[in-house]
Amino acid sequence: MNKKVVAASVAIVSIVLLAIGLGNFNLSGKAINKNNDTIVSFSTLMQGKNSQVNYNKTEVVRNSSDWSNLWGEIYPSSLVSPSINFSKVTILGIFGGNEPNWGYGAYIFQINKYEDRVDVIVKQEISGSNCPTLPGTIQPYQVVVLDRIEQPVEFVFDKKIYNC
């Protein structure tokens, strides 16, 4: 990955995380849906097609050590991960691994909080074989932040193939 791109990414993420770390981070707008679960608000910290994580992975980060490890996987040339106040927030990540072309994508669509668990709904989108796509290996990913959760987290994948 280009050093300028890494530096710019680190700067942007650091600014977002600095705001979070100051303790002024309070996601609002939670709503109750018909299943008596709470739809949880979240903000995207990072998202793209080149994560440097070349295998399928989901991540729940609740402490600085795990955050430092994840940061090192995404930005191997960066020495230090930005500081986050994990007493207030949790970070979730999805990583699609190596995919053969730009016709693949994945993103966190919704987070549902129940008394006993949190479900993270992940949409996976794949271009059908008859769709034109750019060649080249990609690693689609998204990393989000939300108010701290204590419940176990389950990632639920919803895969859809789009035919052109």
Topology record:
Blueprint: H1 3-24, E1 31-32, E2 38-39, E3 43-48, E4 56-61, H2 64-74, E5 89-96, E6 99-101, E7 104-113, E8 118-127, E9 135-138, E10 141-147, E11 153-162
Parallel strand pairs: 8-11
Antiparallel strand pairs: 1-2, 2-7, 3-10, 4-5, 5-10, 6-9, 7-8
Describe this structure in words.
The chain has one domain. It has 164 residues and is an alpha+beta fold. The chain has two helices and eleven strands; from the N terminus they run αββββαβββββββ. The protein has a five-stranded mixed sheet, with no helix packed on it. β7 and β8 form a beta hairpin.
Count structural domains.
1
Please indicate the percent range of residues in DSSP E strands (runs of 2 or more): 35-45%
Q: Tell me the strand order in the biggest sheet.
A: 1-2-7-8-11
The end-to-end distance, rounded to whole angstroms, is 31 Å
Number of H- or I-type helical stretches: 2
Shape: flat
| Helix and strand run | HEEEEHEEEEEEE
Summing up helix and strand content along with how strands pair, one would put the structural category as alpha+beta
Mean pLDDT over the full residue set: 82
Structure described in brief:
The protein is 20% helix and 41% strand. The chain is α+β, with helices and mostly antiparallel strands and 164 residues long.
